[in-house]
Specification:
By secondary structure, the chain is an all-alpha fold. Helix content is 71%, strand content 2%. Strands 1-4 form a two-stranded parallel sheet. The longest helix has 40 residues. It starts with 19 loop residues before the first helix and ends with a helix. The N terminus is likely disordered.
């Protein structure tokens, strides 16, 4: 007997098309939920907004200076140079300092039937809802005031269009570059190639800085204005100079430059669209696991990476091995190691080598004379490098996320935990710092200063480890669960920036005795710097682990709740 078939007469619900406004509403809702019951997050957001408004006001008056003074001679120079720096800042600052806001992680949309175009468009529009975008908008409206003052309302309206296009270009460039770097750094097949390319780029920063400063000393404003005119025809300066062109009678240039901006914006969005799935959603194959030859000791020995084979088979050794493996394999941590390598080369060259006398020899090319840097200047530069190297640990527990629960359950003592983390991190950082110290000494034609540079680096690095260990326990914050190493939750980018500044300031204060000793002891410090610096750095690190370890023992549950991502 056939069963009766019931027909539901209820009409199907209409299918709604997802648009960009849904992403904006979702981002605002998520941001509001993140701030709910989190007073410190609200305080950080307000503080960051005020700081952003201060920078915005400073930028506004800088861009508006030609209009306020009524002198448009250097208007193109200010617009092209300032706008180009804005674009470059949006390109590189997320890679080395702040990260990108990932309130709407694309991984959350992986199972939804959303076309790639809808996803990219929605995420792009949602990315415009942020404090940095508002700050750039306020600052760049100084160009509108300049164009309006020099050319009337028509130039001002064109400048508004150019400013809006420039902001879209900044956000698109930031997302496209971080997405591409995320793919490269996560893929272990191209990891070595990425490290080589970034090292070469870092090595070129010093010479480029030298030539740039030499050009600034020798060039006059007229020549610089010519360079700015060229920059104005590139995507870096095109959107920011359209209003000035109209004000100065070059109306034909405005549509051409806007077309250049639109083409660049489209290319960046297409690039981001092609890399967004593999960078933030998919996973890269690590390939066949390498066979460890010559390793004895069974399965336990296989868990110890080559840099930690010396570690004992105890609790401390196991923690060192785990952290060392994570620092090499985790994309987010590896990105920080590459940043340290870049900064370690750039800062000393910027401070010391650029102070020398550079000349061109006939037929021999570029040569450099000995720099006039003093032991005090070298020590200060080493202080900055050591502090910047250690500041990576300011949120070291945030890298673990919910995985830190294993340490809490196992009852790992805080002092052992922090000493192991310091040791594993130093296995990679100390060799890089040693190379920086030796290379800088030879660049300065002062090989006898190797002890001075190494001692200063080790002392300040150890002081930074001590300070950042305590900050990592008291000021930790969660990171988004995504494979993008530059992604940050809403408000976390601001928290990262403020904690980094606090950690650097305190670390510099702790390391100041090294600078005082270099200034007072004279030539004797060249011999004492290495042993005293090593003892000072080691002692500071151990003391920091001792003090912060007691705090960690009391705050383990709170720390776990803080670093666990909120869903």
């Amino acid at each position: 007997m056939a069963l009766p078939v019931s027909v539901d007469a209820t009409p199907a619900a209409p299918v709604r098309t997802v648009s960009a406004r849904h992403f904006v509403r979702l981002k605002l809702r998520v941001m509001g939920n993140n701030f709910r019951g989190q007073g410190w997050r609200i305080a950080l957001f307000v503080g960051g907004a005020l700081l952003g408004l201060w920078f915005a006001a400073a930028g506004f008056f800088l861009f508006a200076a030609p209009g306020l003074t009524g002198n448009g001679r250097y208007a193109v120079l200010i617009a092209a140079a300032g706008g180009g720096l804005l674009v470059l800042g949006w390109l590189f600052l997320p890679l080395v300092f702040f990260g990108v806001d990932e309130t709407l992680d694309p991984a959350r949309f992986a199972l939804l039937p959303l076309p790639r175009r809808t996803l990219v468009t929605g995420l792009f529009v949602a990315a415009l809802i942020s404090v940095p975008v508002l700050a750039v908008l306020i600052a760049s409206f100084g160009l509108v005031l300049t164009a309006w003052s020099l050319g009337g309302w028509s130039a001002g309206l064109v400048a508004v269009v150019g400013v809006l296009a420039g902001i879209l270009l900044c956000v698109a460039a930031s997302r496209a570059v971080t997405s591409a770097f995320a793919t490269m750094l996560r893929s272990r097949r191209v990891r070595d190639l990425a490290a080589v390319l970034l090292a070469v780029t870092a090595a070129l920063l010093g010479p480029l800085q030298v030539f740039g400063l030499a050009a600034l000393r020798e060039a006059d404003w007229t020549r610089l204005a010519g360079v700015a005119t060229v920059i104005g025809w590139t995507p870096l300066g095109a959107p920011w100079t359209v209003g000035i062109d109209v004000a100065q009678g070059r109306v034909w240039a405005a549509p051409v430059k806007l077309l250049i901006t639109v083409v660049a914006l489209g290319a960046l969005l297409a690039w981001w669209s092609r890399s967004i799935e593999s960078a933030m959603v998919g996973s890269a194959s690590a390939g066949k696991a390498p066979v460890r030859r010559g390793v004895t000791g069974g399965a336990v020995a296989q868990l110890f990476p080559r840099v930690a084979t010396w570690a004992g088979r105890d609790r401390f050794g196991a923690l060192v091995a785990r952290e060392a493996r994570y620092w090499w394999r985790d994309a987010r941590r590896r990105a920080n190691l590459i940043t340290i390598a870049v900064v370690g080369i750039f800062v000393p060259v910027l401070i010391n080598v650029t102070g020398g006398d550079f000349a061109f020899e006939d037929g021999a090319g570029f040569t450099a004379a000995a720099s006039d840097s003093s032991p005090v200047v070298v020590t200060i530069s080493m202080l900055l490098v050591g502090v910047l190297a250690a500041v990576t640990l300011a949120n070291q527990f945030g890298f673990d996320g919910s995985a830190y629960a294993a340490n809490v359950v196992a009852g790992v003592p805080g002092r052992v935990e922090l000493r192991a983390r310091m040791t594993a991190f130093s296995l990679y950082v100390l060799p890089m710092l040693g190379v920086v110290a030796v290379v800088l000494s030879f660049l300065l034609s002062r090989p006898e200063w190797i002890g001075l540079t190494i001692g200063g680096l080790v002392a300040t690095y150890g002081a930074g480890l001590a300070v950042n260990s305590l900050i990592s326990v008291l000021g930790a914050y969660s990171l988004p669960e995504t494979s993008n190493p530059f992604a940050m939750n809403s408000g976390a980018g601001l928290a990262k920036g403020l904690l980094t500044l606090l950690a650097m300031l305190v670390s510099v204060v702790v390391a100041v005795p090294m600078v005082v000793a270099a200034a007072l002891l004279g030539d004797a410090w060249l011999w004492l710097a290495l042993p005293v610096g090593a003892a000072y750095g080691l002692g500071a690190a151990l003391l920091g682990a001792y003090l912060a370890g007691d705090v960690l023992d009391r705050r383990q549950p709170e720390l776990l709740a803080t670093v666990t991502p909120r869903r």
